[in-house]
Design a protein that fits this description.
The chain is of the alpha+beta class. It is 53% helix and 19% strand. It contains 15 helices and 17 strands. The radius of gyration is 38 Å and the shape is flat.
């Protein structure tokens, strides 16, 4: 019986007018859910309020913890800046002929560098280097390592101090320190500690105002010691430390959230009382009845408007589709309506126009393909003509006993053969090295052997792939803008090829005039005419992706070093 009634309903619903279907659907999706919603609204409101408060507490805790972690990253970066500063290392490990020279280094070199982090972060209370090189102490920047060997924090942590940053927190004295050894000074057999002390309360001030009424916050170290605490309307001992560290999300009438502070061995815990908001039932019933009455009245009015604004446009769209099915694609399908139906009609018109465009484009592409095939054939013929011409010149030079011309011709032939690479964009590292060797030989002839070259490439990387013509622009740049501009001394170019676990690294280094680092960076980022250095970086990034590319380091008067990094890929 039920299945029969269902079949009758399905058939009548399917065959009924669109306006009647829309009316029935609107009643189903509007009135019925409202009735169901009213029955469960109180329960849902309670759950929603509870969830919102928990989510709000979680977000506030995460933002505060992230703020502390961000500050720690800033301090770590400032520590890296000082610890790996070659100027500081040279100044503290150098030899001085007089105390005046040492004092001048303190005042003009060391003090500005060690005091500059305080300008970036005013919360740094102290930044000092403790060293055992026998240098005299200087103000608040340089001191003897022996000055801190008797302190409690040094005795407890001296065995664990290394080149990485170690954060030492003394919650009783409200001291927080960043300590590390300085690797560049260790290379000169000098032990030095970089000591940074930051304001204790300033580091945790992001936690000050996040506790709402009935909430508390505590920051614990990995041993359960309290580092920082804040409460608002609850006892500081409302939730035991053991329950906080157990990872439970609830304890009695409290819900708990936790967040680790990255960069420190600390975890922030926040807890709050369960609470919810309840509407009065009488007011809720009145609101629901009024709302249902308005919905039903609106549906009765809207049902008469749908036929004009919706059904007629759909009927017109259906007629246009039938014309297209018959093969008539010259229709102009437009609509000035701004609603979804109008958008659907315009979308159908755009689709029809796109189909016509693609048909035309496909025809034009076939013509372009024919032209490209002809150009490819011509490109294949021209290199053969070039190689044959160079071969003829070589034999003529040999017959005439002109060995230097023969050698230059062979280098030129090798250079163009590997440059053209049969029209391929990829070749082996071996082929690229041979290409640049040929180019260097040609340049050497042109410059009367005015510079020397060393090529040192690991045999293990020669069969990996690379893009062609990566090294030639770098060598050309080294000669034209580096070595040729030297006023004295012989030029020198050094090409090295090495590998890491996943990359191939090739460097081109010269002893030319060099340039400042800002200019070197601009060479990569600025577009240049012709086949320049920026083109090399762009080709690598487009072919292999952003992690790979070209980096340039240069210093005026000392030369330039270009480093290419590409992934390790065997030639297929």
């Amino acid at each position: 019986m039920l299945s029969r009634l269902r079949r009758i309903f399905d058939r009548r619903f399917r065959d009924s007018r669109l306006i009647n279907k829309i009316m029935l659907i609107y009643v189903s999706i509007s009135v019925v859910p409202i009735l169901i919603l009213g029955a469960f609204l109180v329960m849902q409101e309670r759950n929603t309020m509870q969830r919102q408060r928990t989510e709000s507490m979680k977000n506030a805790l995460e933002q505060a913890a992230y703020s502390v972690s961000s500050d720690i990253r800033v301090y770590n970066n400032l520590s890296d800046y000082v610890a790996y500063n070659q100027t500081v290392s040279d100044a503290l490990t150098g030899s001085y002929s007089s105390k005046y020279d040492l004092y001048e280094q303190y005042e003009k070199t060391i003090d500005p560098i060690l005091q500059s982090p305080s300008y970036f972060s005013p919360d740094i209370e102290k930044l000092k280097i403790y060293e055992n090189n026998g240098l005299p102490s200087h103000g608040e920047t340089i001191a003897q390592l022996s000055d801190i060997k008797s302190t409690k924090w040094y005795k407890e942590n001296k065995d664990s101090l290394n080149q990485s940053v170690t954060w030492i927190i003394d919650s009783k004295k409200h001291k927080i320190r960043s300590v590390r050894t300085m690797p560049l000074m260790e290379m000169n057999n000098v032990t030095a500690l970089l000591y940074i002390e930051v304001k204790y309360n300033a580091l945790f001030d992001s936690f000050d105002n996040i506790c709402q009424d009935g909430q508390g916050l505590v920051v614990l170290d990995e041993n359960g010691n309290t580092v920082y605490q804040k409460v608002n309307g609850v006892s500081a001992k409302a939730v035991p430390v053991s329950r906080l560290m157990s990872g439970e999300s609830r304890y009695g009438h409290f819900y708990i959230e936790s967040k680790k502070i990255q960069g420190l061995q600390l975890t922030a815990y926040m807890y709050g009382k369960n609470s919810f908001f309840i509407w009065q039932n009488v007011q809720l019933v009145i609101v629901l009845l009024v709302y249902i009455s308005i919905v039903i009245a609106t549906l009765l009015i809207a049902s008469r408007m749908f036929q004009r604004y919706v059904v007629n446009d759909i009927t017109s769209l259906e007629a246009n589709m039938e014309e297209v099915k018959k093969g008539n694609r010259a229709l102009m399908v437009v609509s000035d309506s701004k609603d979804e139906i109008g958008g659907l009609i315009r979308g159908f018109g755009s689709m029809l126009a796109e189909i016509n465009r693609l048909i035309k484009e496909n025809y034009e592409n076939k013509l372009s393909l024919r032209k490209a095939e002809m150009k490819a054939l011509q490109a294949q013929i021209n290199p053969h003509f070039l190689y044959n011409s160079l071969s003829l010149i070589n034999w003529k030079a040999i017959e005439a006993g002109a060995d230097d011309i023969s050698e230059l011709t062979l280098a030129l032939s090798s250079f163009y053969r590997t440059s053209l690479n049969h029209g391929k964009n990829v070749l082996s590292v071996r082929g690229e090295i041979e290409n640049v060797k040929s180019y260097i030989k040609i340049q050497s002839f042109m410059h009367d052997n005015s510079f020397e070259t060393v090529v040192d490439v690991d045999e293990d990387i020669l069969e990996y792939e690379t893009l062609n013509l990566l090294l030639q622009p770098l060598v050309e740049n080294a000669i034209d803008h580096g070595i040729d501009m030297k006023e004295d001394g012989k030029g020198f170019i050094k090409i090295l090829g090495r590998q890491t676990a996943n990359t191939i690294v090739i460097t081109v280094e010269d002893n030319g005039v060099g340039m400042d680092q800002k200019t070197a960076d601009n060479i990569i980022t600025f577009k240049s005419k012709g086949y320049g250095v920026a083109n090399v970086n762009q080709r690598i990034e487009l072919f292999y992706g952003k992690p790979y590319g070209l980096r340039i380091k240069s210093e005026p008067g000392k030369g330039t070093k270009c480093t290419i990094t590409i992934p390790k890929r065997k030639m297929s």
